[in-house]
Amino acid sequence: MAAIQLTGHDLTVDDVEEVALHGAGVGLAPDALTQIDASRALIERVVREERPTYGVNTGFGKLVDVHIDAGQAAELQLNLLRSHACGVGDPFPDEVVRAAILLRANALAKGTSGVRRELVQLLVDLLGAGVLPVVPSRGSLGASGDLAPLAHLGLVLVGEGEARAGGEVLGGADALARAGLAPIELAAKEGLSLINGTQFMAAIGALVLCRARRLVKLADVAAAQTIEAVRGSRTPFSPELQALRPHAGQAASAANLYALLDDSQIVASHRWCGRVQDAYSLRCSPQVHGAVRDALAYAERAVAVELNAATDNPLVLADREEVVSNGNFHGEPVAIPLDALKIGLAELGSISERRVERMLNPTMSNGLPPFLAHESGLNSGFMITQYVAASLVAENRVLAHPASVDSIPTSAGQEDHVSMGATSAVHLWQVCANAERILAVELLCGAQGLDFLEPLQPGPAVSVLHGALRDRSPRLERDRSLAAEIDAVSAAVRDGSLLAEVEAAAGELR
Asked: What is the mean pLDDT of residues 412-418?
């Protein structure tokens, strides 16, 4: 694809995934350079005229009243990066770091931060050269932005910190040199402009949104296969019933299920059986999946705005010749939607695990053998896969606690309410991964359940799904370790390849 041109105004969630996962090129649009230069010119006037301006010629946080001489401007900015780069814990995955670099470059390209174009270009050059700062994943409050993570990212630009380059972890200066890049010496306000922003929480949000879009569709596909396996009913998903409660997400999920179960020999075979209604985990799948879709839509609206938002402090309004202190760095507009999505994905995994139980438990499965095992007793079949799913559901229940309702004052009370949005984002990343693995368990169990119903065939789309699963995991005839197969299917859920095979046959799902 063509290189993505950053303007500060029109970056999309899909662009973030293309750059972070697929290595799409990035450049600065001509309009962005004009915006950057205009805001920089104003900062240089502020410095010359010695106007008292936060972060330009003052200290930071509670030290805002301390005046800094013009000759110390560069030292002030470098000290800011060094002092704030005290994050801890495992480093962020490479795709998160790439996304955060992209988002920080886009925010600076907006022309409201007062940096030089050379600084923004160096961020873009990091992406092109594959130089990825090593950024610890813990330490941000999501208040004055993602201060600690962005400081670790910024240190590499000045030749400090650590970065991955060419498969090695090197010091910042060595990583830049290997890529033919030179470190930059910071000028007034540039250190502050690098770290004031919500780019790490927004980066995680954007990447999870792309995964969650695929996940909610595959949840419908997995539920359809499970309903086939336990010989459930298609009737609750009929358009006439759904129109009586027209939530957008519910309607989309029900439409998928109704279509996926069409033209099924299995469904037709028990149309006149004596069962009155299915359990909630089957019959109410659209209601639960739909609520998750609605949470996803809420989060997507918020993240789409944040990708092109000015989250610096102070903001440089070149057209008004003003440098204005503000609160746009506060992460709450992102933290609450990410928490909502986190809760939604936890519920998506929860109902999936309940459907797994229905297939494995002979008192619920409508005739399937215990634990979907051949020669049950001698073989345990899929018994322990439900344990795995249940453990992940339990973990998600803990992680789904909304971090955005917690606040611990910092900076001697100056920053007295914080969003904890970075914690929301980190937990969301794990909740999403757990939900993908839970869904993988359901998909494998459903495929095994269909095997026991042969020669009856499911609907065409579910048949394609079954074949795609069998390409990754053969029928379980005798006990074997299923760990690698769960991983393989969860990877296919995550990267979209499994959904692509189903949609190639069934058409694009809603």
From this structure: 87
- Site of tokens 């069409």: 262
Q: By C-alpha distance, which of 438, 395, 415, 419 is closest to 335?
A: 419
- Count other Cβ atoms within 10 Å, centred on residue 169: 13
Q: Please report the sign of the dihedral spanned by the C-alpha atoms of residue 106, residue 110, residue 114, residue 115.
A: positive
Any idea which residue has 């179960």 for tokens?
A: 261
The rounded Cα 279 to chain-centroid distance in angstroms is: 32
Q: Give just the sign of the alpha carbon dihedral 351, 353, 354, 358.
A: positive
Element (H, E) at 262: none
Task: Please report the domains of the chain, with CATH numbers, ordered by start residue.
Answer: 4-197 (1.10.275.10), 204-506 (1.20.200.10)
Average pLDDT value for residue range 91-98: 98
Helix (H, G, I), strand (E, B) or coil at 452: coil
Contact partners, residue 389, CB within 8 Å, separation at least 6: 349, 352, 353, 356, 437, 438, 441, 442
CB neighbours of 360 closer than 8 A, spacing ≥ 6? Answer: 370, 371, 372, 381, 382, 383, 385, 386, 445
Q: What's the pLDDT band for 342 if we cut at 50, 70, 90?
A: very high
Report the distance separating Cα 171 and Cα 132, nearest Å.
Answer: 11
For 143, phi then psi, to 5°, come to -115, -80
Copy the structure tokens of residue 261. 């179960």
Question: d(Cα 188, Cα 190) in Å, to the nearest integer?
Answer: 6
What residues are labeled active site?
54
Tell me how far apart the alpha carbons of residues 15 and 18 are, in angstroms, rounded to a whole number: 5
Span 204-209, average pLDDT: 98
Burial tier of 470 (Cβ tally within 10 Å: 0-12, 13-18, 19+) = middle
pLDDT digits (tens, 9 = 90+) for 162-178: 999 988 999 999 999 99
- Give 1's pLDDT tier (boundaries 50, 70, 90): low
**277 neighbors 204 (Cβ within 8 angstroms):** no
Q: What is the pTM of this model?
A: 0.96
Report the percentage of the chain scoring pLDDT > 70: 97
Q: What's the rounded Cα separation, in Å, for the pair 411 and 61?
A: 6
